[in-house]
Amino acid sequence: MTQEIFAALARMRIIPVVEIDDIATGVKLARTLTAAGLPVMEVTLRTPNALAVIREISSEMPDFLLGAGTLLSARDVDAAASAGAHFLVSPGRTDSLTRAATTSGLPLVPGAITASEVMAAVDAGHSHVKFFPAAQFGGAAAIAAMVPPLRASGVMFMPTGGIRPENAMDYLSLDAVFAVGGTWIASKDLLAAQRFEVISERALAAITLTSPLTETIEGS
Ligand code: 3PG
């Protein structure tokens, strides 16, 4: 199951990262993203109702690829798993997070920036890591420089932090990057203003951005 979820995330390419407190808004967002063709998001545990949002989407839309992010402790992992998340994301990695994720049976994408952190994550059994905050730590060029020495480990990266339509492909063109995450598709401002039509446009633009070959073939 873990590998299937990583494969599904890799097919999505761009993962909307959201901070959301209102349950109805969360469900509406999941429906908007599904209609646009990007049925995935990472709900960060940064609001009091984040777990309730995950619970509701998971029960109403079981096929929606739903992640829980900003997991800082084993308790967060347990709560996210009970709420129905399909994948787990953390800005960093601790042994207790790794243990809790293993117990939950859900894939965890832990944060790792330096070669040592990536190697420690791989050593702990992780195959996919989050490179965060990507822009501040050297962007796509930093990952590109780190890939050759780490290639034998097979580790795959999901950069987040400072990623926008203008630079997403710099990251996604690296073969060790399986997906990128970002808040621009469903930003706090857009959600607060209930601008679902703009969110839909941004999701569609993200899909177009990541499938230039398909577009060219279809357009020729
Ligand atoms: C995250 O949690 O991954 C980041 O907050 C996303 O960063 P962004 O707002 O720059 O997209």
CATH architecture: Alpha-Beta Barrel
Mind summarizing the main beta sheet?
Answer: 6 strands, parallel
Strand order of the largest sheet: 5-4-3-2-1-8
Our measurement of the CA-to-CA distance between the termini, rounded to an integer number of angstroms, reads 38 Å
Q: How many strands appear in the DSSP assignment?
A: 8
Number of domains: 1
Residue windows where pLDDT falls under 50 for at least 5 positions: none
Helix content: 40-55%
> Which class best fits the helix and strand makeup?
alpha/beta
Which series of helices and strands comes N to C? Answer: HEHEHEHEHEHEHEHEHHH
What sort of overall outline do the alpha carbons produce when their principal axes are compared?
Answer: globular
* CATH superfamily grouping: Aldolase class I
Bound molecules: 3-phosphoglyceric acid
CATH topology: TIM Barrel
What percent strand? 5-15%
Helix count? 11
Radius of gyration: 17 Å
